[in-house]
Amino acid sequence: MGRPKRNLLATAEETSTPPAELGDGQAIARVKKAEGNNLYSVELASGKESLLVELPSRFRSQIWIKNGGYVVVDTSAFEDRDNKLNGEIVNVVRDEKQWRKQAYWPSEFVKIPTYLEDSDDEESIVGKMPPAEESDSGE
């Protein structure tokens, strides 16, 4: 049987609004790729450090994480354990526009435009017929 709807709604509400501030050991990271079952490779804002983090059970099968998306990781979550994990995902950035307004959002994570800027120098060929070829049939 699936999880109760109230749990799903509570998780969705938790991830839809950004916190007022990040806790100690927490940082925003960009998801690079899925490394296994509920394990993700993420990069911090510096771009130099790559971490392997785990998705907690409260997010599993409820919140989808896409490559290039953003998450909040807690790097102090597994300090006392000696394993390959560098941290745990504590929140998933869903409404990126709201999160970017926060003071703690890293300036290194710039917004990538969805559409490339159109160049005014090039003439658009959208909606135009292809050029007619002259026939060389010798008529």
From TrEMBL:
InterPro entries: EIF1AD (IPR039294), NA-bd_OB-fold (IPR012340), RNA-binding_domain_S1_IF1 (IPR006196), TIF_eIF-1A (IPR001253). Coiled coil: none annotated. SMART domains: eIF1a. Keywords: Initiation factor, Protein biosynthesis, RNA-binding. Residues 13-94 form the S1-like domain. Residues 1-24, 120-139 are annotated as: Disordered. PROSITE patterns: S1_IF1_TYPE. PANTHER family: RNA-BINDING PROTEIN EIF1AD-RELATED (PTHR21641:SF0), TRANSLATION INITIATION FACTOR-RELATED (PTHR21641). Belongs to the EIF1AD family. This is S1-like domain-containing protein.
